[in-house]
Protein 1
Amino acid sequence: MKVEIIDATIEFKPVIKNLYPLYLHDLSEFVSDIDVSDLGLFNAEVSNLFWQKDALFPFLVKANGKLAGFTLIASPPYTSKETDYMINEFFIIRKYRRKGIGRLAAFEVFNKFRGKWEVSELPKNLPAQLFWHKVIGEYTSGRYETLNNGTKQRFINTDLHWHILEKQ
């Protein structure tokens, strides 16, 4: 399966906005204050900052040319001081899960941005924790640091070497 990440320039903002309620639906299982309105709608506001700031990077995920999800990547000043890049949001449509699409999309994003990475999951979101540990473990050949009871991973991917971030 061909998986690609596409720069989601401003003309693609409505696409991410349309996908965002599906993402919130999935997160509502793990976050008690995500709920629908009286009209049955999620508040699907996607921050305009992703299209206004050079340090934020929105991408669409495509699988064999079909829309399969999105990811929003942050860099300083929108990350912790210890990292260069962070996965802010990552969503794959259910139809495309467990087919390696999320894994390949994550690899593409990691390869696009070299440096100190941080990925975090919600404490109750065990499926996301399992996914990211597996993906990052494979990507780094097991050379990554786990923090916050397994809900945060850090690694460095450079062309020259791999190594675990030193504990702060």
Protein 2
Amino acid sequence: MKQIKMKLNYKIIKTGLSGIVAILVVFFASPVPVLFAASPVEVEIVALDHWPIRRALEPTLDMLKEFGDKISITQIDADSKEGKARLKSSGMKGHIPVVIFVNGEYTHTVNDHEVVFKNFPVDSDSPMKIDGKWSAGNVKAVIEAILGAN
């Protein structure tokens, strides 16, 4: 019985060492070590699925495509159970057409000014005239700042 245990232990050690060697090879062979690779910026868009909102978000969505796999985009219908829960967890109530979270936050500083990614963007031609005070350019500036910091 002891011989079998010794052989099993030897195999475990041998496998363990080869596993460690494989990890080290992957770590040092990659141009950017795996442990230090930047994770994508998370962009979460919670919006009502109505045509004026979809149209107002087109420039922002087009701009986000420029970042490719550097960002992760999630779109949630604000009228859905998940959308209502997300807005509620952020302390929001009522009829909110659009909120854009970048890395979990919807309030950011751009050029020393606080920008809130909530409601329609500036100059959105909203039929209800509820333009917000943010633009696709503001969202882009926040993402670029985060990517530059990584």
